[in-house]
Amino acid sequence: MNKKTITGHFQLVLGKVQERLASMTGNAELQQAALRRQTDGKIMHAVGEAQDLIKRSLRHQRASM
Questions:
Q1: Which Gene3D superfamilies does the entry link to (predicted)?
Q2: Alpha helix locations (H) across the chain?
Q3: Which of 1, 41, 48, 57 could be joined to 12 by an S-S link, Cβ 3.0–4.6 Å?
Q4: What angle is formed at CA 60 by the lines to CA 44 and CA 4, rounded to 5 degrees?
Q5: Orientation of helix 28-63 relative to helix 3-25, angle to 10°
Q6: What angle do CA 47, 65, 5 make, to 5 degrees?
């Protein structure tokens, strides 16, 4: 896990908490912001996982040479 993976997961969780708060208060604007934060978190998490996969693949490739 790298920093982007962890930050992305944190943003996703934070967005879910924010969405729940928005639904309890009935604030549509806050709910939209929460959904955007969740989407950003998912993207950042996926980018971090892709970077980890590439690094592992390169290490494996170097080791087999």
A1: YjbJ
A2: 3-25, 28-63
A3: 41
A4: 15
A5: 160
A6: 15
What's the pTM value of the predicted model, to 2 decimals?
0.84
- Overall number of domains in the chain: 1
Whether 37 contacts 11, CB under 8 Å: yes
Question: Beta-carbon neighbour count of residue 60 at 10 Å?
Answer: 9
Neighbours of 29 (CB within 10 A): 8
pLDDT of residue 64: 84
pLDDT digits (tens, 9 = 90+) for 5-45: 999 999 999 999 999 999 999 999 999 999 999 999 999 99
Question: Structure tokens of 44?
Answer: 């950042």
The answer to whether 4 and 41 are in contact (CB under 8 A) is no
